Amino acid sequence: MRPHLHHLLQASALAAALAAPATAAADDVVADLARDTPIAAHGGVVAWSSFDAASNRYALVLRQGDVTATARTATARRAFDVSLGPDTRGRVVALYTRCRTATRGCDVYRYDLSTRREHKLRSVSSPSFDEAWPAQWRDRVTFSRRARTRVIGTFDHRPDPRRKGPLLACDIPFVKTLSSRAPSRRLDRSQCGSTDGMAIRGDTIVHVAGVSLGGAGSESQVRRLRTRGGAAVILARTGGGEGGFSPFTSPSLSKSSVWLTRIGRRERAKQGFLRIDLRSKRLTTVASNLNLAGRVARDERGGFWYVQGPEDPDFYGVPPLCTSPLEPCRLVRASASPFSSALRALLPRVRVLADGSDGPVTFASNPVALSGDVSRAVVRGGTVVARQPVPGVVLALLLTATIDEGGPFTDTARTATTDAAGGWSFALNPPPPQAAFVVFSPVLRIASSRVGVSAVSKMGLSASGGTLTGTVAPAQPGRSVQIERFAVDAEGRLPGGEQICVKLPGGKLSCGDRAWATIGQAPLDAAGTSFSTTAPGPGAYRARLSAEPDAAGRPTAYGGLSPAVVVTG
What we know:
Elements: H1 11-18, E1 25-26, E2 28-33, E3 40-42, E4 45-52, E5 57-64, E6 67-70, E7 83-86, E8 92-99, E9 106-112, E10 117-120, E11 130-137, E12 140-153, E13 156-159, E14 167-177, E15 185-186, E16 194-201, E17 204-212, E18 218-226, E19 233-241, E20 244-245, E21 248-253, E22 257-262, E23 265-266, E24 273-277, E25 283-286, E26 292-298, E27 304-308, E28 329-333, E29 343-345, E30 349-354, E31 362-363, E32 368-380, E33 383-389, E34 394-400, E35 409-417, E36 423-428, E37 434-441, E38 446-447, E39 451-456, E40 458-464, E41 467-473, E42 480-486, E43 502-503, E44 509-510, E45 516-523, E46 530-534, E47 539-545, E48 560-561, E49 565-567
Parallel strand pairs: 1-29, 31-39
Antiparallel strand pairs: 2-28, 3-4, 4-5, 5-6, 7-8, 8-9, 9-10, 11-12, 12-13, 12-14, 14-15, 16-17, 17-18, 18-19, 19-20, 20-23, 21-22, 22-24, 24-25, 26-27, 27-28, 29-32, 30-32, 32-33, 32-36, 34-35, 34-37, 37-38, 37-39, 40-41, 41-46, 42-45, 42-47, 43-44, 47-48, 47-49
């Protein structure tokens, strides 16, 4: 990106863009994130991990009220599986695990926010097993422990009472009463699986587990456990396979509900903020109307935090894990519960409302206008009820490699400023043969989704006797067109007998490009707008202008294809 973009930073535009709508309280940014991270909230405190690219390590960050500070503790190789909860005196403490390596030698640690000191919880840290996802509620700590367990079979991961089945690595939930000398209580692990989050409140524990079903199948389960033991109750489950996988994650507990979300994508799996009623098991989903990067947190006061990802998902529709070169992920505090009827204004977004083309491919002779707006969605629950325009924002038009690639980006040196309605527009006249564009706000560090533009020459062809004449627009002097002849017989076969066409009802043939053979070239005239040649005999003909590629295979000149004409003499 060229240095001149830095000169686009304008204080007035920033102030206008961040002004909250008059009709709704606005969600606000707590921190920019270079990587997705688990988040936790309790007692007016929120915790997360901050990634440092230079050291490739994570620091634990805590925010109390409006004060954000890095914890006085060592950094880690991976994001902290942090939770927040009350200790025996009701003070907020942070629990997480530390590991000797990236995945092994993991023990439970507690950080005291009042003394700003960390210490290992030796009563729950085993020298032989790895712990993960610890959480505390007053005198009790829950966590999972990784162990190898014999299961019934490859496709049945329930524990094998005969202990003869295959060995699998399983995460087993435990609970420990800190004031008791009794060892940690092993809870029902149900099917063998991995842990994707744990929460505890009073006598209730929630364990989110991922279970492999063998082959390409998998399942995510939300399990309710009791600290006194007993069988696990599955509150919700969702499958995975060829249609994608959208597992549950980030559980928080209130007296009556589990609050969480999903990550990934799966057909028919609703994304957003999730609530599961502990009594009825009813699952309620509130659409987020934004790209959740995967983590949410709710504290006992009803406050919500979430990680918002960039606008543009990757090619497979999965939000990127905070690695966009244009905009970071953001830790956001919701101005109200997404499940309430209160109006909320989301963060500003750059929207593309029209690409100005005739369809997937447009004629290069027609001007193309990219247009859209910068606005905040105002939502009530999961429904967008209004949009708040953001005027005065300077936008840059960036060029990227292809519609399928999120970079590298090249500055086109073209800018636009949003009007009173938040609208913007970029005219592409003439449009490029093929390109993908992104509209970017350097001030707000937000970008639109990628917009692909494909343009071709408008070509005409006519026959007069044995003479073929044609036109090309726009002009492309110095180039030649290919003359093609329909090369299949009435049954849709090539001269060698290969059947390449499909006969439709009524006898009409449906044929692809293989049915046409190139028989010659016709140079364009000096102006690059017309050509003429002689047909070698009766038949159907058409003219083609190739799209000349660069070293990366991207077109650098317009291609095109004329309608077919018939020569009879």
